[in-house]
Amino acid sequence: MAYEAGLHDCPGSNWRMSEVHAAIGLAQLERFDAATRARQALAARYDEHLSGVPGLRRPGTFRRPAGSPPTTSACPSTRRSRPTSSNALWPPSVPNLLTSPDPSPTPQGADTAMTTARPVTVLTSNGAAIPFNDTYFAPMTDSSELLAEPAALRERLRRDGHLLLRGVLDPDEVLRLREQYFARLDPGFLAPGTPPVGGVYSGTVPAGTAEYGVPGHPAHSFVRSPEFQRFSDQPVLRQLAETLLQGVVQLLPRKIVRHFYLGSLRASRAHTDYDYMTRGSEHLVTTWIPLGDCPLPMGGLIYLERSHTLAPDQLAPLHDVTDRPHDLRPISHDLRWTAERTARRWLWADYATGDLTVHTPHIVHASLDTDTRRMRLSADLRFQLTGTRTDARWTQPWSADDGA
Ligand SMILES: O=C(O)CCC(=O)C(=O)O
């Protein structure tokens, strides 16, 4: 062998695969899709949180002056081993950062996207402002440590009207569902070059998109899809409901998916679930599942502190201030007013993929407007004690125009 053949002038280029490495690699290939999804979701978070930071540029967005030679820092053999746009292992939906052009300009409103570096001072829900301070907000209690103690978990639900449970679901499963939803949308909904799992909004709703959740809209077919059914049927969700309701439960067929995005100023008004299910049993719990990370500025679910203990005559006047006077079910779109009127704070959380909340039918809850480029996606599923009366409106798959 020539002397030069054993010389390696840059680190990492003298790598060969042994049988053991190959065996490990083959086993890891089975996890490839899940790992890719998790990394894409993480990359989307970096994009979102760092996009407004001066001086930072996403890898691949560096524009070499025309005619200048390729970078000399990478070893030729290393460069060759990197994927190219024709490499079959590089999913076509993922921008190849080595070859793709600069991403298109940031969508409208991207500069308002919150980052952890920028403190949140004011939030909105359906466009109505509420200051984010100790007067109006308090962090939700994490009840995850009670998961192994059924009686204590039930007692916490009785006390608080809701539970925040972290890490209950497999994050890979959650992200797979997120990807499947956003893959159903017109590609124009997503920022160019971003993968569906990121759910990064392009800033424009493509022309011809049906009204949300009605036949013809992707959310309508999504809630009827086998993948959504499989996700909803996960034993862990049913077991949790059975632990809380102390009996066999049924999942109500009206399962809802909610998708909110920047600039729409749409969120769930303050309400109790029971106001929408008055013809059925109160022996039920709702499971609210963020499909992907949902930090505060993304507009997750918030609960009005101990509001399940409010008497009907305390709740009734709360319907007076509303932007939907024709609909008597929501309490109010004005969360600040609701907090002041009841002298209670809104409980909030930064949700991570795999977390969920459970709540009782009488707690007042709402959600905040989405103020991030990543779109908010969630599912709410209701489990009811078998043998108790079911509200007939909840026995069919959800459609946004079903009037329920
Ligand atoms: O996701 C939302 O904005 C509202 C969900 C909800 O009201 C519920 O889970 O009961």
UniProtKB/TrEMBL annotation:
<protein>
    <submittedName>
        <fullName>Phytanoyl-CoA dioxygenase</fullName>
    </submittedName>
</protein>
<dbReference type="GO" id="GO:0016706">
    <property type="term" value="F:2-oxoglutarate-dependent dioxygenase activity"/>
</dbReference>
<feature type="compositionally biased region" description="Low complexity">
    <location>
        <begin position="69"/>
        <end position="86"/>
    </location>
</feature>
<keyword id="KW-0560">Oxidoreductase</keyword>
<keyword id="KW-0223">Dioxygenase</keyword>
<dbReference type="InterPro" id="IPR015424">
    <property type="entry name" value="PyrdxlP-dep_Trfase"/>
</dbReference>
<dbReference type="InterPro" id="IPR015421">
    <property type="entry name" value="PyrdxlP-dep_Trfase_major"/>
</dbReference>
<dbReference type="InterPro" id="IPR000653">
    <property type="entry name" value="DegT/StrS_aminotransferase"/>
</dbReference>
<dbReference type="InterPro" id="IPR008775">
    <property type="entry name" value="Phytyl_CoA_dOase-like"/>
</dbReference>
<dbReference type="Pfam" id="PF05721">
    <property type="entry name" value="PhyH"/>
</dbReference>
<comment type="similarity">
    <text>Belongs to the DegT/DnrJ/EryC1 family.</text>
</comment>
<keyword id="KW-0663">Pyridoxal phosphate</keyword>
<feature type="region of interest" description="Disordered">
    <location>
        <begin position="52"/>
        <end position="112"/>
    </location>
</feature>
<feature type="compositionally biased region" description="Polar residues">
    <location>
        <begin position="96"/>
        <end position="112"/>
    </location>
</feature>
<dbReference type="Pfam" id="PF01041">
    <property type="entry name" value="DegT_DnrJ_EryC1"/>
</dbReference>
